[in-house]
UniProtKB/TrEMBL annotation:
It comes from Coemansia javaensis. InterPro entries: Atg12, Ubiquitin-like_domsf. GO terms for cellular component: Atg12-Atg5-Atg16 complex; autophagosome membrane; phagophore assembly site membrane. Belongs to the ATG12 family. It is found in: Preautophagosomal structure membrane. This is Ubiquitin-like protein ATG12. GO terms for molecular function: Atg8-family ligase activity. Residues 1-20 are annotated as: Disordered. Residues 1-18 have a biased composition (Low complexity). PANTHER family: AUTOPHAGY PROTEIN 12, UBIQUITIN-LIKE PROTEIN ATG12. Keywords: Autophagy, Isopeptide bond, Membrane, Protein transport, Transport, Ubl conjugation pathway. Its main location: membrane.
Length: 108
């Protein structure tokens, strides 16, 4: 293989690796929170957790002034600036990141 062909192949591989992967997110209502019509979504792994919260608020029709508590795996609420890929890699199960949401505090 020539140097030009090998450089092109390397550049093509780097270009495809640069595209953000998708993370499968499963939303689960907790307590008296409304249930989403569709509970499984694919989002970009490069997104921050805050984007996921804003998306959930939009899907539920919640305003910023309405309380919404969001947890990962029924355990903890990550910082809004946490990267979704990090959460999925560390706390995902069966290739999915489970996000529980409630209108009142459910877990500590």
């Amino acid at each position: 293989m020539s140097d030009a062909a090998s450089s092109a192949a390397t550049a093509a591989a780097a270009g495809s690796a640069a595209q953000p992967k998708k993370v499968v997110v499963r939303f689960r209502a907790t307590g008296n929170a409304p249930i989403l019509k569709k509970s499984v979504y694919k989002i970009s792994s490069a997104q921050r957790f805050q984007a996921l919260i804003l998306f959930l608020r939009k899907e539920l029709g919640y305003k910023a002034s309405e309380p919404l508590f969001v947890y990962v795996n029924s355990a903890f609420s990550p910082a809004p600036d946490e990267i979704v890929n990090n959460l999925a890699r560390c706390f995902g199960l069966d290739g999915q990141l489970t996000i529980n949401y409630a209108t009142t505090p459910a877990w500590g």
